[in-house]
């Protein structure tokens, strides 16, 4: 049995290192002497008790890049302790695979890639993580080309977002010998890097800001809430409340939006938060909460005298219609139709009438039939009226009564809108099987331009948060605000 150099040196790697250094100074070959004097002792120590910082972890899988200096990779394999070991190697470094197997005593799963093929590393890491989705995985970037190490690090950072048990690791040293141009034996350790998604709230802030900017307020609120737990910094709680307010608004939960909005304004009034970035947009937030309160009052009372509530709800529906757009034309049409209907019902309420019980006199009914026939391009006897006023009936009745807003719309536009409304009634989510075209949806949306108080000189209502001129990103929520 071959003698272990560590035994010859009394178990002292430092003594072996000095022997090695003297032998090199005497003209010996540094690489050959290292393999003879130092490496067997260092390897034996790591086989018995690898040095891992901050502490050993039970990795089930490890993935390593292999270059032309396999010693560090061997230490990383031993430090990771995984049962399944995948090695990304180049054609050149493949010759070190047998030695790596011998040094570590592990079965290896080699994967050949180009030395600069970063995309191949991304694909392999993705494949391996999908193959082992629920176990701790170590990604070791110690060895290999710069492209290989950088690619594995980038893949690790990205995929940690979806596979939280992934850790990036590398073999470091606490002392480097400049004369021998090597780490001093015995000072090596496997470093397990913390997951930046868990360690730094600022990383989550980037995701939260991205989601917030896309209008995915519910998901953004989840990230902001997680940041409170990670950092203990309550400023993120205020951003969470803001995102929850907008999420409730966007899902038409006026009561929930008001509750979150009031709570947020209350927090912003506390001494501790007077300097919070959201207070820079306080007036905008106050206007939005006031609008939401008006919408809530309207929905509870169903009173079209709550003009601000009607206008705010109609504009919210229009924004939602524009947002879903081409992706969901049926839903876009429903939002736009209901928004237009609300605005017309508000105009009708000014006449003291309600669409569900208009109370038409025989004279009004006859005149309405004739007006409706003109819009539909029918003879009056073919124009049908129900007990309630539908959207076209509302348009015709308001024209009949000289409403200045509806009266300003040319008859040709109303006739075009009539065709669109007929298509709406045949839509998949109403009574039929059609999917509205984008042009038809656009006509629904455009029909409100004449009804919206913005176009008539009436008092402006604050925009929805995802509108083009809304606050967008109050306080620009990000790490540190």
TrEMBL record:
It comes from the Bacteria. This is TIGR02710 family CRISPR-associated protein. Residues 469-481 have a biased composition (Gly residues). Residues 446-459 have a biased composition (Polar residues). It comes from Thermus islandicus. Residues 439-481 are annotated as: Disordered. Residues 200-292 form the Csm6 6H domain.
């Amino acid at each position: 049995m071959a003698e272990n150099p560590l035994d010859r040196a009394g178990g002292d790697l430092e003594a072996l290192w000095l022997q090695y250094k003297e032998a090199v100074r005497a003209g010996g070959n540094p690489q050959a002497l290292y393999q003879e004097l130092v490496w067997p002792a260092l390897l034996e120590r790591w086989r018995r008790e690898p040095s891992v910082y901050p502490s050993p972890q039970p990795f089930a899988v490890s993935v390593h890049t292999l270059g032309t200096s396999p010693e560090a990779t061997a230490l990383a394999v031993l430090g990771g302790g995984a049962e399944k070991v995948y090695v990304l190697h180049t054609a050149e470094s493949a010759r070190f695979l047998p030695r790596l197997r011998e040094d570590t005593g592990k079965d290896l799963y080699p994967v050949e890639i180009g030395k600069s093929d970063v995309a191949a590393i991304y694909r392999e890491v993705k494949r391996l993580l999908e193959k082992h989705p629920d176990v701790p995985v170590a990604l070791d970037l110690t060895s290999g080309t710069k492209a290989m190490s950088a690619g594995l690090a980038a893949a690790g950072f990205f995929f940690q977002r979806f596979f939280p048990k992934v850790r990036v690791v590398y073999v470091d040293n606490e002392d480097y010998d400049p004369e021998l141009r090597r780490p001093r034996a015995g000072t090596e350790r496997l470093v397990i890097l913390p997951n930046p998604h868990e360690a730094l709230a600022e990383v989550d802030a980037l995701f939260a800001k991205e989601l917030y900017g896309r209008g995915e307020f519910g998901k953004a609120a989840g990230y902001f809430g997680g940041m409170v737990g990670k950092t203990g910094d309550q400023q993120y709680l205020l951003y969470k409340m803001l995102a929850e307010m907008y999420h409730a608004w966007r899902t038409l939960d006026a009561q929930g939006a008001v509750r979150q909005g009031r709570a947020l304004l209350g927090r912003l009034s506390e001494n501790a938060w007077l300097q919070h970035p959201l207070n820079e947009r306080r007036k905008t937030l106050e206007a939005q909460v006031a609008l939401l309160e008006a919408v809530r009052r309207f929905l509870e009372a169903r009173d079209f005298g709550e003009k601000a509530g009607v206008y705010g709800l109609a504009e919210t529906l229009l924004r939602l219609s524009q947002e879903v757009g081409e992706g969901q034309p049926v839903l876009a049409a429903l939002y736009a139709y209901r928004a237009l209907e609300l605005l017309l019902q508000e105009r009708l309420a000014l006449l003291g009438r309600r669409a569900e019980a208009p109370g038409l006199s025989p004279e009004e009914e006859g005149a309405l039939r004739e007006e409706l026939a003109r819009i539909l391009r029918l003879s009056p006897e073919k124009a049908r009226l129900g007990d309630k006023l539908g959207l076209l009936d509302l348009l015709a009745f308001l024209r009949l009564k000289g409403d200045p807003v509806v009266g300003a719309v040319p008859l040709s536009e109303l006739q075009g809108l009539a065709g669109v409304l007929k298509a709406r009634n045949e839509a998949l989510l109403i009574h039929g099987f059609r999917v509205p075209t984008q042009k038809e949806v656009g006509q629904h949306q455009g029909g409100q331009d004449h009804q919206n108080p913005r176009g008539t000189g009436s008092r402006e209502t604050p925009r929805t948060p995802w509108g083009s001129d809304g606050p967008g990103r109050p306080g620009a929520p990000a790490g540190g605000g």
